[in-house]
């Protein structure tokens, strides 16, 4: 398997997220994490905000109504801003070690509020050669046209790229458009998963 580009999800892979626990606490009828993600990825409010078609206030109002949350929109938005809890301390080193041999891109369902934090607090966009935040692209995972847009922008064939994400739905969607894809549930599992595929960080004198 020849891989030229590695496409990374951010939340759940590079970034620890806090929102799942809170949403299940606020909406116990959702039951499971899988059901929450199914509802979240298909939510009209989420899709509008994370494709840049609405503002944060309208998003918060809509989420509170859609999920029947027991909090007001201001409270939800105040917590939502901090759902991306922290960047893993070893993320930068891993990406820097991969960068000499692979084109690195971030593929993230995200919004202007969170992306501002990624750039301001962690300088995260600078760790990748390319970034495709959904609110700028106007497309979302798991939609096929999001992956197709990224491949076209990179000028790379699907079978020469690997996509990693913590979410099974997104991984299956990536495979459906021809990408190599691996579900990685947390950062600590990332390097071993890459190594299983023969993808290793650059070492002194290593060649592409």
Description of the structure:
By secondary structure, the chain is α/β, with parallel strands linked by helices. The chain has two domains: 5-15 and 85-196, HAD superfamily/HAD-like (Rossmann fold, 3-Layer(aba) Sandwich), CATH 3.40.50.1000; 19-80, DNA polymerase, domain 1 (Orthogonal Bundle), CATH 1.10.150. 45% of the residues lie in helices and 14% in strands. The protein contains eleven helices and seven strands. The chain has helices at 19-26, 33-42, 44-49, 56-67, 73-80, 91-98, 112-122, 134-137, 144-154, 168-176, 190-196, and strands spanning 5-8, 15-17, 84-87, 103-108, 130-133, 161-165, 180-183. The strands form two sheets. The chain has a five-stranded parallel β-sheet with strand order 5-4-1-6-7. Strand 4 (103-108), helix 7 and strand 5 form a beta-alpha-beta unit. The longest helix has 12 residues, at 56-67. The chain is globular, with a radius of gyration of 17 Å. The two termini are 14 Å apart. The model is unreliable at 203-208 (pLDDT under 50).
